[in-house]
Specification:
Mito_Metabolite_Transporter; mainly alpha; 270 residues; Mitochondrial carrier fold; transmembrane
């Protein structure tokens, strides 16, 4: 809960860059920051979507970290998994975590995508979605398919790279400590971001479609084709620097905090 307020601004920048993917004035984070601050002040940059982002962290991070450990160290405790197997387990755990967090992801992305024009509250966006003609609670699960892929890619790439980096550092240093957790966390953020960006770009576009618009894989395919037409392959990684400005610091801070807390509680490292 302490991390979202520190890095929320980066998510705002990324979302605006993705929504404005056809406009060159939003090609870089610096230009995007300038436009957001000029239109709405620093507060809009720092606070837009923070309410839903903090709620999302509770459901998403808690579920995938706990589930991954239960599967790898509980279900398969007698049969150590290799990194390929852990990759698929992590992908599954990320998908499960996305189910719990999708309503908050949808609300947050819509809030942040409109930061260039106005600052909206999570409650206001949720009410708008639920009050759309023909909408019900399931409207909050719009885009859950692509959100699951995004979460799976991020969790698989970040968790496996974290464990691989820890293992490598343990071999060359002979000990596991906060230093190795911090370096592994940085690597976790970089690899996870590179892997999730294509799905993230598609997700942002899908989330910003009208609630009553076409949904499911057909819509995802159309959005994917549109992104490729307007930006080519690079279009799927638009906003990557902004994304890393969020995920790398968050991943650098959270794992060491988690690992040290486990140590103080008498538990083994993750």
């Amino acid at each position: 809960m302490t991390i979202p307020p520190l890095v929320n601004w980066a998510e705002v920048i990324k979302s605006v860059q993705q929504v404005e993917r056809s406009r060159k004035e939003f090609n870089t984070p610096i230009r995007t920051v300038n436009r957001i601050v000029t239109n709405g002040g620093v507060g809009r940059l720092l606070l837009t979507g923070l309410d839903s982002s903090m709620c999302r962290e509770i459901f998403y991070n808690a579920s995938r970290w706990v589930l991954y450990e239960r599967v790898t160290k509980g279900l398969f405790s007698d049969v150590p998994l290799n990194y390929n197997q852990k990759f698929f387990v992590a992908f599954f755990c990320g998908c499960v975590g996305s189910i719990a967090s999708n309503p908050f992801d949808l609300i947050r992305v819509r809030q942040q995508s409109s930061a260039l024009v106005r600052m909206r509250t999570g409650y206001g966006v949720a009410s708008e979605i639920l009050n759309s003609p023909g909408a019900n609670f399931l409207a909050l699960y719009k885009g859950h398919e692509i959100n699951a892929i995004r979460a799976g890619c991020f969790t698989a790439g970040s968790f496996v790279s974290y464990e691989m980096t820890k293992s490598y550092l343990l071999k060359i240093r002979g000990e596991e400590d906060a230093y190795s957790h911090t370096l592994a966390g940085m690597m976790m953020g970089v690899v996870g971001t590179v892997m999730y960006m294509p799905a993230d770009a598609v997700r942002t576009a899908v989330y910003n479609k009208e609630t009553k618009a076409e949904t499911g894989w057909k819509e995802i395919r159309k959005v994917t084709q549109d992104i490729y037409k307007t930006g080519g392959v690079r279009g799927f990684w638009r906003g990557s620097l902004s994304a890393m400005a969020r995920t790398v610091p968050a991943c650098t801070l959270f794992p060491p905090m988690m690992e040290q807390t486990r140590c103080w509680l008498g538990l083994e490292y993750f």
